[in-house]
Each structure stands twice: as structure tokens, then as C-alpha cells.
Amino acid sequence: MKPALPLLTLLSLTGCGLGPDDERGYADVAGDVSLNSGLPYPNPLVTVEGCGGRAHPLTQGDSLGHYHLSLESTVGRHACSLNVTGDGLPVIQVDTAIGFAPLGLHPIQIIDIHQASAP
């Protein structure tokens, strides 16, 4: 039975995911963007900065302010900045932490973005 032990050990190590993509993490973020009046922010352009230093795609929301982002970084929680722009509308920035998990284990994170009230 001794010859099977090294093979069993090798199989268990390769099954643990010790490859180069171990640290790759994914996050799906969705939510609504609204103005300080409570009305939807129509067709928001949402961009993401930070999140572990990876480049992230931007997304165009719909006429009711709904948006969805699929992000990739390393596994863990990262400080991220969500920036919203639109034609003739104020720029909104929200700083938050987003959790990244292995593919298939990442939940959808809901982050609603609201324009701050004027002081």
C-alpha cells in the first residue's frame, strides 16, 4: 500500500487548487442610482477604480438607474470607488469595500448609489 500514498498525496495537493489562478476572485455588483430628489438617475455610466489595482469595465445603466457590474480581482475585500456620470447630471462617487470570491462562490452584492443632499 506504500506506493499509493505518494499518488494520493499528489492528487490531494493538485485538487486543493495550488495553480497560478488560486487568488483570482470575482464579484457581481448591482444596484440603483438615484438623485437627491429620490428620482432615478437615468442611464448612469458607472465606473470602478481601485479594487486591488485591476482594470475594471464600465457599465451603462438603464433609464431607471439600474446597473450591474461583473468585476475581477484577487480573492478578499478591496477598497473600491464607484463613480457615476451622466449627460448634464451631477457626478456621484461612493467609496466602499467589495468582496471578491472564487468563481461560482461569489454572491451578488447590492450597492445602491444616492446623490448626497446639498449642504
Secondary structure elements and pairings:
Elements: H1 4-15, E1 24-34, E2 45-50, E3 59-60, E4 66-74, E5 76-86, E6 89-100, E7 108-110, E8 113-114
Structure description:
This protein has 119 residues and is mainly β. The protein has a single domain, classed as Immunoglobulins (Immunoglobulin-like), CATH 2.60.40.10. 10% of the residues lie in helices and 47% in strands. The protein contains 1 helix and 8 strands, in the order αββββββββ. A hairpin with a 2-residue loop joins strand 5 and strand 6. It is elongated.
Query: Count of helical segments?
Result: 1
What value does the average pLDDT take? 82
By CATH, the architecture is named Sandwich
Major beta sheet, specifics?
A: 4 strands, mixed
Please provide the ordered H/E string of secondary-structure elements: HEEEEEEEE
Strand content: over 45%
Percent helix? 10-25%
Number of domains: 1
Low-confidence stretches: 3-19
- Shape by Cα distribution: elongated
The third-level CATH topology is Immunoglobulin-like
The count of β-strands is: 8
For the termini, the CA-CA separation is 76 Å
The H-level CATH homologous superfamily, spelled out, is Immunoglobulins
Broad structural category: mainly beta
In short:
This protein has 119 residues and is mostly beta strands. It has one domain (21-114): Immunoglobulins (Immunoglobulin-like, Sandwich). 10% of the residues lie in helices and 47% in strands.
Features:
mainly beta, about 120 residues, elongated, 4-stranded antiparallel beta sheet, about 45% strand, Immunoglobulin-like, 1 helix, disordered N terminus
